[in-house]
Amino acid sequence: MKPHIALIALLVRDYDEAIAWYRDALGFALLEDLDQGGGRRWVRMAPVGDRQFSLLLARADNPRQQAAVGDQHGGRVGFFLHTDDFQRDFAAMTAKGVRFQETPREEPYGTVAVFEDLYGNRWDLLEPRQS
């Protein structure tokens, strides 16, 4: 197997609230939810149909981690959700209460708008331009 990035940890306050938000607001699938004992869980979620890359929801367990929840990238966009139909997904996400920080805009690389997850992490919803 060729090396590839398989998952990235995302600090969350609570496993169940994060699962619910990513499932209900973004339509992600719950891939794994394994009890590791001591209140720890191995929770992986991914966009439906994308099993190569996933988010590992990691509950913040100490003050340093708790302070980073919602600011994992220092206020920058740190996550990029690609779509093949920007208008469809923008409308669906807006209807589900996702907070967009801007109106959609056209860039040389595609149609994009920044939104926040339940903790305030910034994401791009992006329909890449076809080359």
Automatic annotation (TrEMBL):
A UniProt-annotated Pfam family: Glyoxalase
SUPFAM superfamilies reported for this sequence: Glyoxalase/Bleomycin resistance protein/Dihydroxybiphenyl dioxygenase (SSF54593)
Record protein name field: VOC family protein
